[in-house]
């Protein structure tokens, strides 16, 4: 039977961690189990293999990363080397002004009153 080195495949959770798309391998595996990782449009389990040419979509912190695997690596490497292992096709992040404003209360103002809470809910559209 052929080994991973001969076939040029590696686990998707290991590859995501190796190219520094997530901080830890367990975070990558958790994202796979939660359905936040897709390989070629299909939901990926942590043990699914990826090979060069596969498209990996990763959703973390509300942003979607779309990368195409260009090289397989098994061990975590430095950031300059890691960026050579994929082609980033991610859309640009939204500008900061497009994000909704978070209501800010004055420090020491205490707990919101019922009226304050109703105003906040009205502003948030709840």
From TrEMBL:
InterPro entries: HSP15, S4_RNA-bd, S4_RNA-bd_sf. Residues 116-126 have a biased composition (Basic and acidic residues). Keywords: DNA-binding, RNA-binding. CDD domains: S4. PROSITE patterns: S4. Residues 10-77 form the RNA-binding S4 domain. Residues 87-126 are annotated as: Disordered. Belongs to the HSP15 family. This is RNA-binding S4 domain-containing protein. It comes from Streptomyces blastmyceticus.
């Amino acid at each position: 039977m052929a080994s991973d080195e001969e076939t040029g495949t590696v686990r998707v959770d290991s590859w995501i961690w190796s190219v520094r798309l997530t901080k830890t391998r367990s975070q990558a595996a958790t994202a796979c189990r939660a359905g936040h990782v897709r390989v070629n449009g299909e939901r990926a389990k942590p043990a699914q293999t990826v090979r060069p040419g596969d498209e990996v979509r990763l959703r973390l912190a509300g942003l979607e990363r779309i990368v195409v695997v260009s090289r397989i690596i098994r061990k975590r490497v430095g950031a300059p080397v890691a960026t050579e292992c994929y082609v980033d096709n991610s859309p640009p992040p939204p500008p900061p002004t497009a994000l909704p404003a978070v209501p800010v209360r004055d420090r020491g103002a205490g707990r919101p009153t019922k009226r304050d809470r109703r105003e906040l809910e009205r502003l948030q559209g709840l």
